[in-house]
Design goal:
Elements lengths: L2 H13 L18 H4 L2 H14 L10 H10 L5 E5 L3 H7 L4 E6 L2 H14 L4 E5 L16 E6 L4 H11 E9 L7 H12 L1 E13 L2 E12 L2
Parallel strand pairs: 1-2, 1-4, 2-3, 4-5
Antiparallel strand pairs: 5-7, 6-7
Helix pairs in contact: 7-8
Length: 223
């Protein structure tokens, strides 16, 4: 292996995607704290059983502390709108009254639809949308959702829609909120500008199935 190849291999091992200082830093350069590191064994275990046994735990592919916060936030009578489906959809559907989940990948849409049926989850309005009409859902009344989850395509356009659809005083969750891409940056700024005073909660977290720290935010919208 050449010195250049060795350097690239080491950088990949240390940083994950090459865009952060180390796997224990977010894209914006914040290193995870001791409380976040407490979830390292859980993250490593999820990776190990996936790699060795091919078993994918049915847990949200979101930060551990963000999930814990959302679990304490969501009420049984809530309506939740989710952009980007997955194991998080099971988490939200089991905790709220009604979930509208929007997906752009046809094969994943089929797979998740079968999983909803197999698990007997019947409170989900599951929607397949192409990129052009992914964000807009005119049939859903404005200011009618307690929580909107932004974790899919076109996060800037989706965040603008989220602010229309969420109730005053409701919440918007943005995953991967410090990814250095224009749509992510615009989404984070848009949501921060709409937040109530002290209404932005930031989570620098380890996630299941990957060994790297990511940032997410929960925004309480002005009432």
């Amino acid at each position: 292996m050449s010195s250049g190849s060795t350097s690239r291999w080491w950088s990949r091992l240390l940083t994950g995607d090459g865009l952060r200082k180390t796997r224990l830093h977010t894209y914006s350069g914040h290193r995870i704290d001791i409380g976040g590191l407490a979830y390292l064994p859980r993250s490593l275990w999820s990776i190990a059983i996936l790699k060795i046994f091919g078993y994918h735990q049915m847990v949200p592919w979101l930060g551990y502390r963000a999930v814990r916060h959302l679990d304490g936030l969501i009420r049984p009578d809530w309506r939740v709108l989710e952009f980007g489906s997955g194991m998080s959809s099971l988490f939200f559907a089991r905790r709220c009254d009604r979930l509208i989940s929007v997906e752009s990948d046809p094969s994943w849409y089929t797979q998740m639809g079968r999983l909803f049926t197999r698990l007997g989850i019947a409170n989900v309005d599951y929607r397949l949308r192409e990129a052009d009409d992914y964000a807009e859902h005119p049939d859903l009344p404005d200011q009618s959702f307690d929580l909107v989850v932004v974790d899919g395509l076109a996060r800037d356009r989706v965040s603008a829609v989220a602010l229309r659809k969420v109730k005053p005083g409701g919440y918007v969750f943005l995953d991967n909120s410090d990814v250095p891409w224009p749509d992510h940056k615009s989404a984070r700024q848009l949501l921060s500008d709409a937040a109530a005073p002290d209404g932005v909660r930031v989570f620098n977290d380890l996630y299941p199935f990957q060994l790297q720290v990511n940032e997410s935010i929960v925004v309480k919208v002005r009432g």
